[in-house]
């Protein structure tokens, strides 16, 4: 496995790299989009095949220097844009062979304690991946108890969202909450009775708050719709995801908009489904990392890879995807 390094202490192992490359078929050449550049592991691996062209995006300003190095090394074959991937259709034109998403955070972001993603941090509440509208400090100190509860319960699937949100409101009525360790203490106090030895008590709340600050579900839904628009017939969309909400969305999209969708949908009123399906038959089961990878690269343990192949049908907006996951999108739309 290839370890990508920005500085000696901060590095990222690309998750399921060989599986992503196997699904991408770079030997044939073509245009590949890496929507989540991170440490550049996927981009660099794709560029090691001679007839490939790679366009990479990332919302994080901190990856620009690594991307510039690749631009120098692979002149005319690599281009980077700092952008959210929901905007992909504003940056790129049609006829892309493969579009890849490796969702969530990189270890480079997680291990930089100043950014406030890790519960080990004693720094300020931030959690912005980049190009985000507000920080965690704004959210924690401005949202109502009901709003915080909803975010923690639905986006974090945290059963104790009620007591956690209550204790956040109580603490901030005494003093503004500004640091990560202050929030960790509030969560630990709230969950004292149910402390699990297996997972850190803050895991689910932190997941919820990170998703909310970065509008990750809205990014995913808009990102995969807009990416599908750009793929050529036979082109592939490949997604590595890390939690159950993401996987539910991806699975629904690929299954319900593929040619093997059996029941006619009310969102496809006139023509036969087959003529409107965005993808060829969706047969591939979820691909998981090997035991070897899980042992050497712990963050890969929850990874799931799915891919689908674009059909020759014209693009029709997949409204049922947005309808189906409206609950998450509405929570992310809460104003801070
Ligand atoms: C798991 S890392 C990707 C690692 C990469 N595959 C590698 O091999 O190094 C995810 C990256 O995607 C970026 N990212 C997450 N959501 C994004 C979005 N909506 N738009 C653009 N970039 C995003 C993050 O900033 C992070 O750098």
Produce the secondary structure layout:
Elements: E1 4-5, E2 11-12, H1 17-24, E3 30-34, H2 41-47, E4 52-58, H3 64-73, E5 78-82, H4 88-91, E6 96-102, H5 107-111, H6 136-142, H7 145-156, H8 161-174, H9 180-190, H10 203-214, H11 216-230, E7 231-241, H12 244-256, H13 273-276, H14 291-296, E8 304-309, H15 319-324, H16 326-332
Parallel strand pairs: 3-4, 3-6, 4-5, 6-7
Antiparallel strand pairs: 1-2, 7-8
Helix pairs in contact: 7-8, 7-10, 8-9, 11-12
The protein binds S-adenosylmethionine.
S-adenosylmethionine binds at residues 4, 12, 14, 36, 38-42, 57-60, 63, 84-85, 102, 104, 106, 129-130, 219.
Question: Outline of this structure?
Answer:
By secondary structure, the protein is α/β, with parallel strands linked by helices.
Could you characterize the architecture of this molecule?
The chain has two domains: 4-108 and 217-318, Vaccinia Virus protein VP39 (Rossmann fold); 133-214, DNA polymerase, domain 1 (Orthogonal Bundle), CATH 1.10.150.170. Helix content is 42%, strand content 13%. The protein contains 16 helices and eight strands. It has helices at residues 17-24, 41-47, 64-73, 88-91, 107-111, 136-142, 145-156, 161-174, 180-190, 203-214, 216-230, 244-256, 273-276, 291-296, 319-324, 326-332; strands at residues 4-5, 11-12, 30-34, 52-58, 78-82, 96-102, 231-241, 304-309. α7 (145-156) packs across α8 (161-174) and α8 crosses α9 (180-190). S-adenosylmethionine binds at residues 4, 12, 14, 36, 38-42, 57-60, 63, 84-85, 102, 104, 106, 129-130, 219. S-adenosylmethionine (SAM) binds next to α2 and β4.
């Amino acid at each position: 496995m290839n370890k990508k390094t920005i500085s000696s202490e901060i590095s990222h192992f690309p998750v399921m790299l060989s599986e992503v490359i196997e699904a991408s078929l770079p030997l044939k050449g073509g245009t590949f989009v890496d929507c989540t550049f991170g440490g550049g592991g996927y981009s660099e691996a794709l560029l090691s095949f001679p007839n490939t062209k790679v366009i990479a995006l990332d919302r994080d300003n901190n990856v620009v220097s690594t991307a510039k190095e690749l631009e120098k090394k692979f002149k005319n074959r690599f281009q980077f844009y700092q952008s959210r991937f929901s905007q992909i259709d504003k940056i790129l034109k049609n006829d892309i062979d493969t579009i890849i998403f490796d969702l969530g955070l990189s270890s480079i972001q997680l291990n930089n304690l100043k950014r406030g993603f890790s519960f080990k941090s004693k720094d300020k509440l931030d959690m912005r991946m980049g190009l985000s509208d507000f920080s965690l400090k704004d959210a924690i100190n401005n949202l109502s108890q009901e709003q915080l509860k909803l975010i923690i319960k639905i986006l974090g699937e945290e059963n104790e969202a009620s007591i956690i949100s209550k204790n956040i409101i109580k603490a901030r009525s005494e003093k503004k909450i500004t640091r990560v360790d202050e929030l960790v203490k509030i969560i630990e106090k709230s969950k004292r009775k149910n402390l699990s030895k297996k997972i850190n008590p803050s895991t689910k709340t932190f997941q919820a708050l990170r998703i909310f600050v970065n509008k990750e579900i809205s990014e995913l839904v808009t990102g995969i719709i807009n990416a599908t628009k750009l793929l050529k017939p036979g082109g592939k969309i490949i997604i590595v995801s890390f939690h159950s909400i993401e996987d539910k969305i991806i699975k629904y999209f690929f299954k319900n908009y593929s040619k093997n969708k059996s029941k006619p949908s009310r969102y496809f009123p006139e023509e036969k489904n087959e003529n409107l399906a965005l993808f060829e038959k969706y047969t591939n089961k979820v691909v998981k990392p090997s035991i070897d990878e899980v042992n050497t690269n712990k963050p890969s343990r929850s990874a799931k890879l799915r891919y689908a192949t674009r059909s020759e049908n014209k693009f029709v907006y997949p409204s049922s995807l947005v309808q189906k996951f409206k609950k998450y999108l509405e929570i992310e739309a809460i104003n801070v």
